[in-house]
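Input.
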Amino acid sequence: MKTKEQYEIGKLKKRLRHLTGKAIEDYKMIEDGDCVMVCMSGGKDSYGLMDILLSLRRSAPVDFTLIGVHVSGKFPGTQIPEKVREFCESRNVECVIADDDINSIINRVMPEGVRVCSLCARLRRGILYRVAGEIGATKIALGHHRDDAIATFFLNMFYASKIKSMPPKLITDDQKHIVIRPLIYCHEDDMRSLSVAMNYPVVNGTCIHKANKERPAVREMMDLWEKQHPGRLDNILKALGTIQPSHMLDRRMYDFDNLRSIISDSGKGLKL
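Output.
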């Protein structure tokens, strides 16, 4: 007989599996014969993503393979590569460790004390794209979840004056790679609970460089909102999928100069 804790863990896994499967289906993320490269940062979300995809693969209507890839960056003192490799081996998943020296590049080109998050992300992205080509991956899976997408939306709005978030699926500028985010419907609290339940070998706070302060501030705002108004973050995510260009201000997305012809063609006017 299952204990209450085992029952709750089972419900959690089922919920995450359902939400991930729905996202994959909604955005046609994985197709028959795909080789999915799962980007393993060593954080809770990438471990969880791998386990959820492994679970889905057992009953999926399509056949696909999984390969774990970690970019070490050669930052001093980290044990992440070994932990990622052990995690993948325990699940009989092939693991590739890219040992490109990101740390030396950052130290060489960036002044001390300057934030390096953007440069580090670009370097990692370039390495991941290169490795994807080397191993023949047809999809690159990232572990970003609902809360990451919403935080990115607010960061772009507050600091870049853009309505922009993390797309669930995109093709790279050179048209060579398709990037997917299967956890886009999943809540961070659930991913955190899964990590604790599964005892993932998470290593936190390994970055030795000055970190971005804006994202934690936005996340704090989001946490307060969700505490005061449960369900608000889900509503925001739904809003990101139901954009009405006619009720925004972007002239590139809607022809405000020719409203009468638009109304005539559609046969109906705009609802206020």
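The domain at 4-211 is CATH 3.40.50.620 (Rossmann fold).
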